């Protein structure tokens, strides 16, 4: 087994165990981190004119946002859930526009919005975030 293959296998096992042990709060944090990582990679793909890779990365971010939208609890979350759903829709539209136009300024805007969401998410009190219900 070569080094790269072993490293990828380790990452896969590490990621899987991290997900299995994570609270819902930690899962959303991981999703946000993944989206931000993919946006940064997409910016690099634009600068290298890697059109297919850019599309794959932005599609992955949209998939992450769809997962986050599906996790919204409109009954318990009320107006906050509605506003987050609308924000996720807006971000997805901007990502589609960025994909078509290869506009890194749109990716910067989306990254900033996701960092704001992540900041708010991280400010949730520990007594609430450690709950599994």
In short:
It contains 6 helices and no strands.
Fold blueprint:
Blueprint lengths: L2 H18 L3 H24 L3 H20 L3 H28 L2 H19 L3 H4 L4
Describe the structure.
This protein is mostly helical. It has a single domain, classed as Flagellar protein FliS (Four Helix Bundle (Hemerythrin (Met), subunit A), Up-down Bundle). It has six helices and no strands. Helix 2 runs antiparallel to helix 5 and helix 4 packs antiparallel against helix 5 (104-122). The longest helix has 28 residues, at 74-101. The radius of gyration is 16 Å and the shape is globular. The termini are far apart. The model is unreliable at 1-15 (pLDDT under 50).
Overview features:
about 130 residues; mainly alpha; Four Helix Bundle (Hemerythrin (Met), subunit A); 6 helices; disordered N terminus
Low-confidence region ranges? 1-15
Most strands sheet: none
Overall, the morphology is: globular
Structural class based on helices, strands and sheet pairing: mainly alpha
The top-level CATH class is Mainly Alpha
* Annotation field: number of helices: 6
> Percent of residues in helical segments?
over 70%
CATH architecture annotation name: Up-down Bundle
């Amino acid at each position: 087994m070569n080094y790269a293959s072993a490293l990828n296998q380790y990452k896969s096992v590490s990621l899987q165990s991290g997900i299995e042990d994570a609270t819902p709060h930690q899962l959303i944090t991981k999703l946000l981190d993944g989206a931000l990582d993919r946006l940064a990679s997409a910016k690099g793909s634009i600068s290298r004119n890697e059109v297919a890779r850019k599309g794959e990365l932005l599609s992955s971010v949209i998939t992450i946002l769809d997962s986050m939208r599906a996790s919204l609890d409109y009954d318990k979350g009320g107006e906050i859930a509605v506003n987050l759903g609308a924000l996720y829709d807006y971000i997805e539209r901007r990502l589609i526009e960025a994909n078509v136009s290869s506009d890194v300024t749109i990716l910067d805007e989306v990254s900033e919005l996701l960092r704001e969401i992540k900041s708010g998410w991280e400010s949730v009190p520990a007594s609430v975030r450690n709950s599994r219900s």
